[in-house]
Every structure is written in C-alpha cells, then in structure tokens.
Write a structure and sequence with these properties.
Shape: elongated
Number of helices: 12
Strand content: 15-25%
Number of strands: 13
Low-confidence stretches: 251-256
Radius of gyration: 27 Å
C-alpha cells in the first residue's frame, strides 16, 4: 500500500491555532512515528496534552492552551474560570497557566498538565469567543471565585464584574445557589458583604475595621444633598447624626491631573457645606488600622461638638 504524502505547511489548514489532534494528523497521512519524532525533544512540534499536538515548539500561549484543552475535552466541552473571564475582556491575571474545563458528567476525562477538568450535570450553553468555546460570564466568574486562594482575590474578581455592570449580585447569587456548595463558602461570604454596597477590597476592609470602632452605625455609598436639593457629593461612608463623611482615597482615583482636580473640587464643596470629611488610603487601612480608628474617633468628636449642617443623605441603590 502506497504511503500518503503530506506537507508540513499544509497542516496549519487543520487549525487556525496550530493545535491539532493526533487523529487529525493520522487522517491526512502523518504516521505515528512521524508525530512522535517531531514531538521529541528539540523537534519542531510539541505534545501539549494526551492526543493533542501543537505544530510549533516554544511556550504555548493562553489561546493555544485553551484550544488544546478543548481538543482534549471534545466538542461538548467548554472553558470557564479565569481564562473564560479573560475572553470577556477581564484581565484576571491570575490563571497561572491553568485552563478550567467543563465537561458533561458522563464523559471520562482526567485533569492533566495545565487542564483542570470538571464534570458537571449543569453544563451551560457555550459562547463562542473567536475560536474558543467558553461558559457564560456569570458561570465563568463564579467558577473563578471558587478557585480563588484569598479573599482579596475573590473580592477583586467580583467587584470588577459588578462595577462594569456586566452582572448583578442577584445573578451571581443565583448561580451560586444552583451550583455545588464545594469551595463556594468564600464566594458566598464575600457576596453577602458586597450586598452592603462595598465596591472594592479597601471598602470591605474599612467596613470591617469600622465595626470595631464603637462609633454609631455608618451608611455606605450614599449621596449627600443640601436642603435646597443641590447635590453636594457621593461618599463611601456617612454618619448621619453628625454629618461626617468617610472617604477611601485610592491612587486609581488620581491617575491624571484632571482626576486630582475633580477630587479637590468635590472635597472643597463638601467642606464648604460644613461636612467633616475623614479620608484614608487603602494602605492606611491595611497597615495602620489603629491610627485610622483614632482619626475616626477624634473627627467624630469634632463633628459632635459643632452644629449639624442642614444636609440630607440618600442611600444609593445596591448593585443588586
């Protein structure tokens, strides 16, 4: 029987990513011996996963790893977690090369190399991003938070999606309720705290610290108006009885001269209406909590000692 001839350059027609299966190579006439030889150390190809080959050497990109994971998992598999979130435009910067793969519950595929294979009865309808199949945004997000190794990481993932308006707290809570409870305790706790309208890791840390202060209850994320109806400012925290405003000064709020000028004008407007403003940076809250508490208590006493300005607080609607 005459051996079929093949051309190495034409093999890239099999896949836009350069990731192909051993079966595809056999079908166009590439022998097992040729595949193994080219995937050997120093060869032009590499074996990424069982039965999956990348038609080049060198470190595989995220796209190539994703394509390899899908080739390994088969046509009903899809990517979720951090790599899934990345495909929606969220730079999670935390997948560490791992690709989280969802598979039908009846399929037998083990986790291997950079692939974390998860079988599920709740396989969603995939969304195609370029050449990659991914789970919907909320599913990818929840799966990413379930794999988060720290609370700060979990908060960052959730707040970025919530702040962009890509999902609501209720949508995330529904996905959590319908999914497995395993590895979800951290996400559930953080989501519960986010219902109190904290929008960042720093705000969560500040709210927890404030609860140890012994001061009156603080309302978070609210709008302040003069009695005339004139808008004054929104603020991270507010003690209504004494008209004291709490501010978290993140460096991201002052990335340009225009940002800085807006912050200064806003702060001046608050003080012109008689508000006492207590501000700290996220680093202060993290590294100098006792000093932060002392500042809050001292400014509360100052606010208590002067007549309360005639202003009105209106809570902003929750992200939910």
């Amino acid at each position: 029987m005459k051996r079929r001839q093949w051309n190495a350059g034409s093999l890239f027609d099999l896949s836009s990513t350069g990731v192909v299966t051993r079966r595809q190579l056999r079908e166009v006439g590439v022998s097992d011996a040729a595949i193994d030889g080219r995937c050997a150390a120093g060869g032009p190809w590499q074996r990424l996963l069982p039965g999956v080959v990348l038609l080049r050497n060198g470190h595989p990109s995220t796209l190539e790893r994703s394509a390899a994971a899908l080739a390994y998992g088969g046509p009903t598999s899809m990517i979720t977690g951090c790599v899934g979130l990345d495909s929606f435009g969220y730079g999670t910067n935390g997948s560490s090369g791992e690709v989280h793969l969802l598979l039908p519950a009846e399929m037998r595929r083990a986790s291997v190399s950079f692939v974390r294979a998860e079988r599920t009865w709740r396989l969603p309808e995939p969304i195609t991003k370029g050449s990659i199949r991914v789970a919907p945004l909320v599913r990818s997000l929840v799966d990413a938070t379930r794999a988060a190794r720290s609370e700060a990481r979990c908060v960052t993932l959730l707040t970025e999606v919530l702040q962009r308006g890509s999902a609501s707290i209720d949508e995330i809570a529904t996905e959590l309720a319908e999914g497995p409870r395993r590895y979800s305790a951290l996400t559930r706790r953080v989501l519960l705290e986010l219902r109190d309208n904290a929008h960042s890791v720093a705000e969560l840390e500040d709210q927890r610290l404030y609860r140890t202060s012994g001061l009156p209850t603080m309302t978070h994320n609210c709008d302040i108006y003069a009695r005339s109806g004139e808008f004054i400012a929104n603020t991270d925290g507010w003690i209504d009885a004494v008209a004291l405003a709490r501010e978290i000064d993140s460096v991201t709020h002052h990335l340009s001269p225009a940002d800085y000028q807006r912050t200064q004008a806003r702060r001046n407007r608050m003080q012109a209406h008689g508000l006492i403003v207590v501000s700290h940076s996220p680093q202060d809250i993290r590294d100098r909590p006792h000093q932060v508490l002392d500042d809050l208590r001292m400014n509360y006493q100052h606010a208590l000692a002067r007549p309360r300005p005639d202003v009105v607080m209106v809570p902003r609607e929750s992200t939910a």
